[in-house]
């Protein structure tokens, strides 16, 4: 299915299923395409442009999506373990019910992006810019937010145990009461019951 790519080719309104994507493809564009059970693992997708595409049950383990502009994409039940989105723009997209543990989001600009029911454990959000971002029922254990403001970001439905963030960047984050107690450890506060 992917054997006969030609450099600088564009594909419209296609459906792909049950195949392995090339590891180092040419410059390619996909518009309004659906990918089901495609193995993108270890692929270099830096020169591949996806717009208005849907990914179902795809494997993106350790894929390189860096330096990319991503618009109007939907990922459903995908394995994105260790994916590299660094230095990309992620716009008008959603990731649902997927594994993004150990992913790299360094220098990413998010605009109207949703993570729904995802595991994002031990991932890095370094020097990230958020505009209209949602984390809904996500596992954010041990996630690192360095030089990334969480002001007005709702984390109250997520597991944020071991979150790595500076107090300045945590200011204005929306959390629930139990999370607030966990985050008090960042302040060095010791909580004891009164007699």
Gyration radius from CA atoms, angstroms: 18 Å
Distance between the termini: 71 Å
What is CATH's topology name?
Pectate Lyase C-like
**Tally of domains:** 1
Kindly state the number of beta strands: 14
Number of helices, where a helix is a run of at least 4 consecutive DSSP H or I residues:
2
CATH superfamily: E3 ubiquitin-protein ligase SopA
Low-pLDDT stretches? none
- Describe the sheet with the most strands: 8 strands, parallel
Overall structural class, as computed from helix and strand content, comes to mainly beta
Secondary structure layout plus pairing:
Layout: E1 9-12, E2 15-20, E3 28-31, E4 34-39, E5 48-51, E6 54-56, E7 69-71, E8 74-76, E9 89-96, E10 109-116, E11 124-126, E12 129-136, E13 144-146, E14 164-165, H1 167-170, H2 177-183
Parallel strand pairs: 1-3, 2-4, 3-5, 4-6, 6-8, 7-9, 8-9, 9-10, 10-12, 11-13, 13-14
How would you describe this structure to a colleague?
With 195 residues, the protein is mainly beta. The protein has one domain (9-187): E3 ubiquitin-protein ligase SopA (Pectate Lyase C-like). Helix content is 6%, strand content 33%. The chain has helices at residues 167-170, 177-183; strands spanning 9-12, 15-20, 28-31, 34-39, 48-51, 54-56, 69-71, 74-76, 89-96, 109-116, 124-126, 129-136, 144-146, 164-165. The model has no long low-confidence stretch (mean pLDDT 92).
